[in-house]
Amino acid sequence: MRRKASLVLLAFAVFCAALSPLLRWYAFPRLAKVPANEYQDMVLEARNATLLDYGTMKARTVPVVTIVQTLKGNVEASKRIERTAGRDVVVWDGLSYVQGPDGKMVSRIPERYIFDAHTQEPVHATGEMVDGDPVRRQGIEFKWPFLTKKRDYEYFDAQARVTAPIHYRGTQNFRGLTVYCFEQIIPWTKVPFPKAMPVEGVTPESVAGTGTTRWYTTVRRFWVEPVTGAPVYGEEIHKEELRGGTLLGGRDRVTAFAGHVKMREEYIRHTVSLVKSQRRLVLLMTSYLPWGFLVLGAVLLSFSLWLEARGRRPSGPEPAQATEPQPLSA
Questions:
Q1: CA–CA separation, 108 vs 97, rounded Å?
Q2: Nearest residue to 234 via CA among 186, 182, 270
Q3: Which residues, 6 or more positions from 252, have their beta carbon under 8 angstroms from its beta carbon?
Q4: CB contact at 8 A, 33 and 282
Q5: How far apart are CA 109 and CA 51, in angstroms?
Q6: Cross-strand bridge partners of residue 213
Q7: Rounded to whole angstroms, how far apart are CA atoms 135 and 123?
Q8: Are residues 67 and 98 in contact, defined by beta-carbon separation less than 8 angstroms?
Q9: Helices 2-22 and 289-312, interaxial angle, to 10°?
Q10: CA dist 221 to 45, 169, 218, Å?
Q11: How far, in Å, are 23, 104, 200, 230, 239 from residue 203 at the CA level?
């Protein structure tokens, strides 16, 4: 009976030991994915910012400039691309909408970002674009990979349409979460005018005809929760200038926008709460369950060997039976 129990425990021990790496290295890459139908929005603000008044073509200080960023999963496009990509793909249709203190549009830039649902690596397919211009992304954008490492990554800048390193700057505690800090610096770069201009009747082509060009620089920072790879906070020190041409009335340059862009408080709270709940699910597949099954397998194996050892232990010698004395003969 003991031997049967020992064999059953040994079978369960082997099962648990085999299940541990399967959960981490097989199930996790197939189950931990960005949903194809995800929708999220975020509001950022730059207070006491500098903004160009296109009526007078002079820069002025305004109380606040608001940036609304939305990301909407396009399920139909994802399914279509997956047929040829051979992997799970997410298509995000994004929109960055900037408005001044009077509520009027300053710029409106749509983009389509196509990436691998698990690794967040770009997937190149028809429709990948920024403001209607086809692009071929290299590096990540918006989200870091699951189990983010303490290293530099390549990050795509949608304004300049370039990929540049975003550097790991250290580890901090942010509202109860351990986060990795990353920073990217884009030097002054000539960038195209948005196709949706803030002045009715003015087009990028008409502005380009005056010889005026648009330049941009930024210092971009993210605080990333490493288990999920989700940024819980971000900010930019953002500057734009118009340079040269007849549009500026002989001036060499004029500031189009300058401000310290930060996430609004209610969106920070919502993001932190969401990331905390998702973090537990990822840890369940990468740490809690694999290590739990491994420890359980070791305990079951030890108990099985103990039962086997008890079953094979030899019993003590049987007591000798008393015999009556035999009579002696001469």
A1: 5
A2: 182
A3: 243, 244
A4: no
A5: 17
A6: 243
A7: 11
A8: yes
A9: 160
A10: 15, 10, 10
A11: 55, 17, 8, 37, 21
Give CA–CA dist 178/172, Å, rounded.
6
Phi and psi of 34, rounded to 5°?
A: -75, 125
Reduce the DSSP state of residue 122 to 3 states and report it: strand
Q: Using one digit for the tens of pLDDT, what is the confidence trace for 101-138?
A: 988 899 999 999 999 999 999 999 999 999 999 999 99
| Burial of 122 per CB tally in 10 Å (0-12, 13-18, 19+) | buried
Q: Are 6 and 307 contacting, i.e. CB atoms less than 8 angstroms apart?
A: yes
Query: Residue ranges of the domains in the chain?
Result: 2-21+285-312, 32-263
Of 30 and 171, more confident: 171
- Tens of pLDDT, residues 61-82: 999 999 999 999 999 999 999 9
**Mean pLDDT over all residues of the chain?**
89
17, 22, 25, 29 alpha-carbon torsion, rounded to 10°: -150
Residue 267 amino acid letter: Y
Answer whether residue 298 shows pLDDT above 50: yes
Task: Provide the pLDDT for residue 330.
Answer: 42
Structure tokens at 255: 């500031």
Q: How far apart are CA 41 and CA 50, in angstroms?
A: 25
- Give Cβ neighbours of residue 187 (< 8 Å, ≥ 6 apart): 217
Query: Is the CA virtual torsion 143, 40, 265, 69 positive or negative?
Result: positive
Q: Of 74, 73, 70, which is closest to residue 94 (Cα–Cα)?
A: 70
The pLDDT tens digits for 182-220 are 999 999 999 999 998 888 888 888 888 889 999 999 999
